[in-house]
């Protein structure tokens, strides 16, 4: 299972964390309590066989029990814990095995059970492993994800999608231990592609206790049936629980974390036309572009101290600053453009020392791999626009596990910019920022967002979730629509004038 601690290469490569027998038994017993009655049982990456043994014992009526694994040594152990007369073991590579013939040769209903490998494509990349499907850019992951290089995926996710393919048009249950985030991705696929499903359940498991891994993990149970359809998934706190704590749902292509809470706040659903959530500036070169003011000049991440003009330096805050409410200038960002794609050559004239600094570090800046910098002016940044220079902002860290919206005003008379881990709204005045801060701090806003946010995600608070809230509707619900009208009338001023406000706000950056 993918924990933070360093794993031996073979374990990492094969995501090889064998399930303790007690956990496999508890999970199989749960399936029996749910009334699942498989005729055939398959464990496609069965390892040392704890799930095979438990499932075979729980479902004595199953006519066929098959286990496959890439590792013959594991299969030898599995042989010792399973009944030779009932359980067939085969050595094979998941990515090459002829699964379809297994499915068509045995009778349904199926139970595809187990604990697929816990490893991501990025982790396999680091150790140069090819324990991967041939075509890795699956699910049409194109657009901004591919552009910014975020096409990393869990191998188990890819495998679970194959399980769905095998069972298409058949009756069967998929019951696996996996990351909760992977379970949600599979649900999203099921709902988007209208895969026929009778029920879905997610049971939290304590991955730290069972596998020594600090990840949010679950036992994920999907009952597939060609004639059934449901858009809900019940969430349970543990394998022994019969009453769900909440229900996941599907809305407009997204997974709702808590359907009941969402329904109480659904009148706040956007779109919002005046207040647009943005992410902070992306430059992918913090060693050069982020500097700390010192008595001797600006210190960069290469242990160099530079004398630079203030012209293109703006105070910056990071996720940790916003999360800790530390709103003072510890560092500055070199903001080379006011809009994406703007020509940067004027920096040579306007701030020669800054230009020379950039030139001297052009090798590092030119090395930035992301396609967003290709065929763009030298020293380009991304996620910059007039909104970046608005004097007031309401910010929230994408990484933090709380809904903390923070009002940020100018520092040293300059607008504050953020790194790309922060999401923000721009405002023209402190009054406007206070108004938005109040709205977002309300119980209604909090319940709305809580019903959407999946807190176990690495970056739970995304622009995509934030923009689902209609601030206009929220203001109306809280009796503050007149203020909304007043502030948004001002907002109809072209935002581009913010660039001017940046020019008006020059001043030294304090050390
Ligand atoms: C997380 S372990 C789980 C083992 C077993 N299912 C259990 O629950 O104890 C993942 C298993 O996947 C197997 N595995 C990894 N890559 C594989 C591949 N390409 N083909 C078949 N099995 C593979 C490993 O050998 C390992 O036994």
Primary descriptors:
511 residues; 6-stranded mixed β-sheet; disordered N terminus; Rossmann fold; binds S-adenosylmethionine; 2 domains; 20 strands; alpha/beta; 10-stranded mixed β-sheet
Q: How is this structure best described in words?
A:
This protein has 511 residues and is α/β, with parallel strands linked by helices. It has two domains: 9-256, Rossmann fold, CATH 3.40.50; 278-504, no CATH class. Helix content is 33%, strand content 19%. It has 22 helices and 20 strands. The strands form three sheets. Strands 3-2-1-4-5-7-6-8-9-10 form a ten-stranded mixed β-sheet, sandwiched between helices. A six-stranded mixed β-sheet has the order 14-13-12-16-15-19. A hairpin with a 2-residue loop joins β12 (290-294) and β13 (297-299). α2 runs parallel beside α3, α11 runs antiparallel to α18 (443-450) and α20 packs antiparallel against α21. The longest helix is centred in the N-terminal third of the chain and has 13 residues, at 21-33. The chain is globular and about 80 Å long. The protein starts with 8 loop residues before the first helix and ends in a 7-residue tail after the last helix. It binds S-adenosylmethionine. S-adenosylmethionine is lined by residues 14-19, 43, 45-48, 50-51, 69-71, 74, 93-95, 114-115, 117-118, 131.
